[in-house]
Write a structure and sequence with these properties.
By secondary structure, the chain is α/β, with parallel strands linked by helices. The protein is built from 7 helices and 5 strands. It folds into 2 domains: about 30 residues; about 170 residues, Glucose-6-phosphate isomerase like protein, domain 1 (Rossmann fold, 3-Layer(aba) Sandwich). The chain is globular, with a radius of gyration of 19 Å.
Length: about 200
């Protein structure tokens, strides 16, 4: 009985594996020059900001919070190149700040309050939202605008409420949240690759 169950579970896992891989390959195949242009525009704004003494701020919720911290870790640490750390902050990582602001002002303000405190005119804000409708990201973008910051997004769906508020956006070509997240981190890695090449080899 146990052997039969193990065989069934193995077959089931194999089908899920094939589905996950095939679905990701299909979504990756829908990436085109417009997506590349979105990432290169973001990279260009970040480099302009860095060279003026600015920094990159990144935020998102849930899996997008993890992506925010992942991207920042690659930039402050290193991705592929051995080089100095780059100035980037994930607005998702200070739990005392997040809970204090959430408790005092509401969850919608957890990122905007940090942008108000930390943001400046040479900074770039990257918001990551699979729906494009995250209220706390919308308020963060509006606060960034008040500070004269460039604002970009990694989004899903039709871009949602965030799309018209941004200087540039990459919209993952999928309706499935897991696949949107997989595209976002893949494009986040591409961003890191471009920044390392361009920062070390300015035009």
């Amino acid at each position: 009985m146990s052997s039969s169950r193990d065989t069934f579970q193995r077959q089931e896992a194999s089908l899920l594996f094939r589905q996950a891989v095939d679905d990701l390959v299909a979504v990756l195949g829908r990436l085109d020059d417009a997506h590349l242009d979105s990432v290169t525009a973001l990279a260009a704004d970040i480099l302009v900001g860095w060279r003026a003494g600015g920094k990159l701020l990144v935020c998102g919720n849930g899996g997008s919070a993890a992506d925010s911290q992942h991207i920042v870790a690659e930039l402050v640490g290193r991705f592929l190149a051995e080089r100095p750390g780059y100035p980037a902050i994930a607005l998702t990582s200070n739990t005392s700040t997040l809970t204090a602001v959430g408790n005092d002002y509401g969850f919608d303000h957890i990122f905007a309050r940090q942008v108000q405190a930390l943001g400046g005119p040479h900074d770039v804000l990257l918001v990551i939202s699979t729906s494009g409708n995250s209220a706390n990201c919308v308020l963060a973008v509006e606060e960034g605008r008040r500070h004269g910051m460039k604002v970009h997004g990694f989004l899903g769906g039709d871009g949602g409420r965030l799309l018209p508020l941004l200087d540039g956006a990459l919209i993952a070509p999928s309706a499935q949240t897991p696949k949107i997240q997989e595209i976002h981190i893949t494009m986040g890695h591409l961003l890191c690759m471009i920044l390392e090449k361009w920062q070390d080899n300015p035009a």
